[in-house]
Amino acid sequence: MASFLPKGPLQTIERHILEQQKFYPEATGTLTGLLYDLALAGKIISSHIQRAGLAEILGATGDENVQGEEVQKLDEFAQRTIYRLNDHTGRLACMGSEEEPDIIPIPERFPQGKYVLLFDPLDGSSNIDSNVSVGTIFSIYRRVTTAGPGTLEDVLQAGSQIVAAGYIIYGSSTMLVYSTGYGVHGFTLDPMIGEFLLSHPDIRIPEKPKYYSVNQSNEIYWSDGVQRFTRYVQGMDNGFKGLSARYIGSMVADFHRNLLQGGIFYYPADLKDPKKPSGKLRLLYECAPLAFVAENAGGYASDGRQRILDIQPQALHQRVPLFIGNRSLVAKAEEFIRTYDHA
Ligand code: P6P
Questions:
Q1: Same fold? 13-200, 211-340
Q2: Per-residue confidence at 2, pLDDT binned at 50, 70, 90?
Q3: For residue 214, how far is its CA from the centre of ligand 1 (angstroms)?
Q4: How many A from CA of 249 to the centre of ligand 1?
């Protein structure tokens, strides 16, 4: 009888998170509980996405978010689910979300905690109605203020301060991929038993890249260095065999493929939209968490000139250009930009 169980040690994410706790002697179980609840959020959101076409949960709400993007019903559902799982636990000082213009306070009736949660509840949600994989991205920091409600200062921290980060990808299967700084580990949801089971222990980005992922319709708006880098990855630079192009327009899906297969995803600055001279992607709850995962898997992430995790955020919804994936390819992008784009 075929078994639907992963190879290797049979381990749930709950037990894995608990075992990660041994790396933090001062751990009190708070971070463990926070990660547990993010896995639970993934199960709840996944169960709704899998049935989105059937339930009255597809489509747009008719509202616009702070980004000026159409809010999808599932965006709102994912946002509310993560909020409701975390507003009362006493683990957080505050939250920050792609969907909310300002930081999200913990209601006064609940205790404050020592962590801060930043998340994009459903990235790529405009793809939902066409059944394209979407994802939840999360990162956890320690608060920097010492008491009282969390403040913007607690949220505006460089990615190098991340304690744990990861994403949940709702695709042909639902996977949760996370790191606490000790490797990157992937779990696949078995919907029959409602458990995330360890399926991808110790993920490392393959040395030999296979893909490059970028929206090439923006090429005419890129800098000279980025255009030259793109020709390099296409193999128009002798000495480098070209990569295959793969771009699905849902960053978690594009990132996940390159994490497992090797490659680079990039969303450069483009001058098409003067409001977005730094590209489209947000530093705090999209780029920094994935940069944390990439680096813990042996990869690297840059804005084209500096390490993403070193950037000190100035605003909650700050955008940055992003080059993320194989360290050699991201470094090559930086080299082209350094050589051809004068700051
Ligand atoms: P474009 C989805 O809206 C998103 O924020 C990312 O998930 C994705 O990588 C990017 O935008 C796609 O943007 O301009 O290529 O459609």
A1: no
A2: low
A3: 10
A4: 5
pLDDT exceeds 80 at position 276:
no
Three-class SS state of 53: coil
Edge-to-edge strand order for the sheet containing 195-200? 104-105, 92-97, 115-123, 134-142, 164-170, 174-179, 185-190, 195-200
- Mean pLDDT over 243-261 rounds to 97
127 lines ligand 1 (CB under 6 A): no
Closest residue to atom 9 of ligand 1, CA basis: 251
User: Is the domain 211-340 a CATH 3.40.190.80 member?
Assistant: yes
Q: What is the rounded CA–CA span in Å between residue 280 and residue 318? A: 9
Sketch the domain layout of the chain as residue ranges.
13-200, 211-340
Ligand 1 pocket test: pick from 251, 270, 282, 283 the residue with the most ligand atoms within 8 Å of its Cβ: 251
On the question of pLDDT at 58 being above 70, the answer is no
Model confidence at 3: pLDDT above 80: no
Please state which CATH class domain 13-200 belongs to: alpha beta
Residue 136, helix vs strand vs coil: strand
In the beta sheet, which residues pair with residue 188?
175, 197
280 Cβ closer than 6 Å to some ligand 1 atom: yes
pTM given for the model: 0.94
pLDDT, tens only, 288-301: 999 999 999 999 99
